[in-house]
Batch of 2 targets.
Target 1
Amino acid sequence: MDEPLLSVRGLSVHFLTGVGVVEAVDGVSYDVRRGETVAVVGESGCGKSVTALALLGLVPSPPGKVVGGEIRLEGESLLDATPERLREIRGDSVAMIFQEPMTSLNPVFTVGDQIAEVLAVHRDMPGDVARTEVIRLLALVGIAAPEQRVDEYPHQLSGGMRQRVMIAMALACGPKLLIADEPTTALDVTVQAQVLELLARLQRVLGMAILLITHDLGVVAETAHRVVVMYAGRVVEQGTATDVFARPQHPYTAGLFRSLPRLDTDEALRPIEGSVPDALRFPSGCRFHPRCPYAMPVCREKTPLLAPRGTAGEPHLSACFYVDEHPEADLFPFAAPEAT
Amino acid sequence: MIAAPTELQATAAASPVAASYTELVLNELRKKRTTRIGLWCIGFLILLAICAPLVSLDQPVAWNEGEGWSFPFFGALFNRLLFENAIDVFFNLALVLSPLYVAAVVVARRRGVSGTRLVAALSLVHVVVFTAVVPAHLGPLENPLHRSRAIVEYRGRAETLTSAGHPPTALFPLHRYGYRETNPGESVNPPSRRHWLGTDTEGRDVLARMIYGTRISLTIGVIAVAIYVVIGVVLGALAGYFGGLVDGVISRLIEVMICFPSFFLILTLAAVVEERSIFHVMVIIGVTSWTGVARLIRAEFLKHKELEYTQAAIALGIPRRRIIFRHILPNAIAPVLVTATFGIASAILVESSLSFLGIGDLSVASWGETLNTGRLEGKPWLIFAPGLAIFFVVTVFNLVGEGLRDALDPKLRSR
């Protein structure tokens, strides 16, 4: 197939703190193709948000620093782009929506002014034309009575409405890629579903790609075509949503599923033992090995590489020595440790 | 519960009034009684400053001694021999144009233009017109409003004519004295029927000087504060937003400035500047007092640049200058408004102090200067009048400042 819309290769981001270097993102690679939804999943602090921020050159620097790798948007290297070029790309071909709709809108401007500003900055659109366009956008994201809402201030809107407004702002210039950083975390469950539905509908209508960053596997299952699972700054597994959900190929992914409530079994939830490692002192070798029921001596010494799993269709990759040795093992039930 | 969720949200969020932040604050401001009184008093002071010639001047609005009507008042407003100072020209022009401005306000209000925008637009118009009026020549043409004609002594003439038996038909301002009229024969007279508040060493009418003094005090307060708010906001915004080296340099500069005892710095500067016009005094107050504003703005920027809406604006590709001045500044400016209001009061006080110490501008009707004369002469009417005037204005601005502080504090807001 043709080249992917977005291609990330070996991206590494470090934070230079007073007490040491935090390797927040370490050699992360993934692609996003046109029109598809890719979900980046992981616990808090696993580097998923930093990866997304790095795409737009938004990693706070100092202390953050992109130390290696390559990010290409339609072939154009974003890490080599000038700040001015990056600014042009932001909000235009790549837009982003954030976790906190309550505070992501500027309290002193009306909703309409904020959307119109994006159009003015990127499209040089004069006020009266922009107003019609803003109303169209508000209607597009499912806001009732957009003609009235356009003149209201953020404090007059509910959380779900604000998130819709944020989405309208992000969509104003018809981006090719929408980065959604935990778009539903701060919302009520019913509103979450609406927002996800809206994103899916907009994707069908506008044909943009979505990079969805979340820790919520339910959200992933509902919306994503492909899944990238991250743990402690590294990608541990990636593949189509169907493959990953049906047959996880990394003990961490399996562990995540095990810790979710399910309706089809009566089994007790089993959380992953231990806790997320200290970012200043990641374990050697595979960073998951202290918590992994399948850990082998080699896991402590060497870093596993992403290797293809399965056979047919879309590639399904995971980085695990245990799976390397036991390609047919079913990780889902978390078989007794050291069963070999 | 069958209604579509979006409709539910719509009704839940719909509030009766779509009020902007400014309107919210203004409503809050009107709630407190002392603040309301303060606002009325400021309005009265501004009105008095604009209408000062109607209240106190020796030129009649209309004059007829039997040979037809003349209107010397309007010519007098732009006569350099009566009103030399640019501040006076500014206010006199406002007086002449006030019917136009009032008409504009009435029309615009009927069309639903917001009040704050209207005030801003009219102020801008007035400043533009003013700058066109001040110079002596407009291109090759002589400025018709820049005139120096001999002054006719209408007051004296009216008295002579009255005593001669055929009084003129004349409409004088309420009080028949200008603030620059000297009369060596009436030096340091106590209050009388002619001079309600007495006269100073040069025989000038104290009441007239008090009335015209409001112009000086208001202008000093507003312009000096405007100068230091602009300096403080720009430096503070840069320091807070960029941090790092920029912040280091600006913060050290602020610390150095704070180390100087400010009034003595002002005194030194005022003593060094050779030609002290009232504008020099404003600039001197402005360039020495910006540190407080800069620190406030810096702190606000440090907070606001981390907030999500700033991050969102960056992620949407809004240019940096717009983010600093259009997105963050309106959110960060509230505490500055409060200090600015208090600052007007203290700037007025500083100017009075400078005039009191004899290093102000002697060509304007400064309250501090009259106070100083009173101290030297030891005459109570020369001390009480300006003292009370200064006290009144400073109190009024502090009342409003306090009200503004409460109105901007969401914790005290009763909704």
Note: The beta strands of chain B are 62-64, 137-138, 141-142, 169-171.
Target 2
Amino acid sequence: MGERPEESADAYLRTLRRVRSHDRLAAAAPPIHFTTEAGAMKRKAIILVHGMGRHRAPEKAAAKDGQPAALKPGAFGDEFLAALAENLAPFAAHKGKTLEELGYDLHEINYDAWFDEVRAALAEQGKDMEKAIGALGGKFGLSVPYGLVEKLTSLQAGFDSDKFFYTHWLDVIFYGSLLGAKVRAVAAATIADVVSRYGGANVHLIAHSLGTAVAHDTLHVLYKAQLDDDMKERGVKPLNPITHQLASIWMFANVSRLVNSVTGFANPLASIVRPGDQGCATTFVNVRHKLDPFTWLACFDPANDDSWLPGPLYATAYSNIVTDLVADPNTHSFTQYLRDPHVSVRLARLLLFPKFAGTEQEIADAATARAKESLAGKYAQLEDALENAVRSNEPAGWKDFLVNATAHGRAVLELGGKFPS
Amino acid sequence: MSAPLRLLSAVLLVVLPPALRARERPTAEQPFPAILAEAQRLDAFAAGALDRLRKLGIPTREDVSAEFPLGDFVRFARLVRSDAGAKLPEREFPGITAQLEGFELSLAVDERLPHPLPVFEAVPNLNNGAVLYFFTDRRAFQGEIADPGREFDLPTGVGVIRLSRLDALSGLKEAIAPYRQALASDEAAQARDYALRISAEWDDYFERARPQSPLDILATTVAERRHLNRDELVGPPPRQWFLLRPNVVVESLEAAPDGDQIGGAIALEWVGVNFWNQKLPIGVSLTSLASDREGVDDLGHGVSLYFANKYCIGWASHGGDNGFYFSIDTAKFVTSKRGMLEGYRARLRDFRSTLGR
């Protein structure tokens, strides 16, 4: 083995230090564990990419017993770990096992912390401009109407608001802007680093909601089967889809096509992000909820007609799971997705392969228990409310997207109060 | 054991290639020790070559390739074909022969270092619980077994081992995987460093270029879409665009009455562009000014020029009366220094006292 993982990690950290300190994204990238050369390749990694909304970034925990400082999982990591523990509980052979005991390290790509900083900086900029204009106007007795200027600055000054638009939709708008390119660069560095230290075949990537677009777009620019002469000349260094093929990609509430329909960046049905020898992953799993309107718009649902994958690959390397479990009125929730045994058993089967030891009886019991949670009437109630609120046509642009998604949010909130907890 | 025999066995251990040494000890845990040993030898060789080359700079694929003896990789693939082919019968593993031949073909594409470097995989088919096995670059040849737990007799040359089909596939996967570990790891580390470099270029953009409002960010996104949507990791665009950008400026209007010629004005850049990353960063904007001077039109229209991503000078015509103005980009000032407002006021005071007002 060439560069030992410890050396590689040191080099990586040195490089990170050269990157500006405000770069929270990159700072989130250092691994939880530095292991020995042999151990590093025996351990496996899960990379998580969160969706829109507030997500606390992973933080460094204090070093102890001479061990390097680990990272405490961020909000999305915590959600995933809790759901995984719950999903493994029905299986006697795996119950109570931590991710670490299962041989996995967790890595998170967190772009929300940086987006929050950008929001705060823009708000501060707007507020200071407001003050400067006010002060200058007073000083020189300006009385000319400058309503437009006032509107522009006050709009910007509100960017640090806690309102849903600023904490959620703005993430989508930010990602669709040039800020997205920076997010992709840091996400690519994280993925390439993890692949370098664990080997692509030991890396699983799990993304949710807006994170599916981030993951898709990043993989699309990071993996190249070949470089053209111009790229070679400019020193572009990609990952190779065969040499660095990921073990699996899991897309929950996949909005990559929706975001692509607006930004025009990388069509998910024509990109390298697919399973097989023409793609960058061995296995690709797409999970959507029947009643998650985010997945109704520009739904990621490639047909089995050889246009996306050859038939045999479509049947073996691709899984499309459509869940209808309604345990929570928020059908877009990541944890709700993970609670469906159709999802959780497949995830456990793949992550623990070849050592998954759940019996058929345990799997059946888990399904029965979950079915009980999805109380009768919830599904129909939610379905009616959503169909009334949301148009299921393809979005014509940001306006349609926002109108549909806001209607979904409202429907969910209204229903939330009526649902028995 | 006598001393000469001990010496002979020690010499043999050192001299014999690992493949030959290991060939005699297949176990249920690792049924392909010869393949594993050769894969580890290739990996150790690659690691050594990379270590040497890194002292001279970032190793290129051509540099690394030149280090390998001719045909090293294809010899490895032949060993895989012969050893695994003899141990994994086609009746138990449909398609395995074609897969092993395909691997040999894949590694024969370059007589030194082939590209890409596939591995053998055995993974669950999540749709039906069966197990798939294949080399990662030739999925058309993939095989599938529905009963991976079924046992069979694996011949070893010194007897047979009884083990499950799944264990045999896992053993082959583990034996082959190390052969390109160092090479794959190094390439991925280079991809990581490249991505970090692009990320650092963005940091430079946010630190050095003119600060942008949300509208400016969107305008730049739309105007530079071709750059930003390229099918690769991209750094910041060479141009920044500005749209409806407010600013505060100090304007000199000769046509205004004495004592009222120097004053503040609010500027609005309707549209502007800034070449932020030139040796001397320069930008230009179409700008209107609103001021309040006796005898002069309140509104003026003209252009402003930006230098070094912060200093602005401009001209505006107030109904034919020329106004000249300057500004230190307020937002830039705010971003870089706290208490900007006070600083700005002080500068205005200084400016006015200099002019004797």
Note: Residues 226 and 232 of chain A are 10 Å apart (CA to CA).
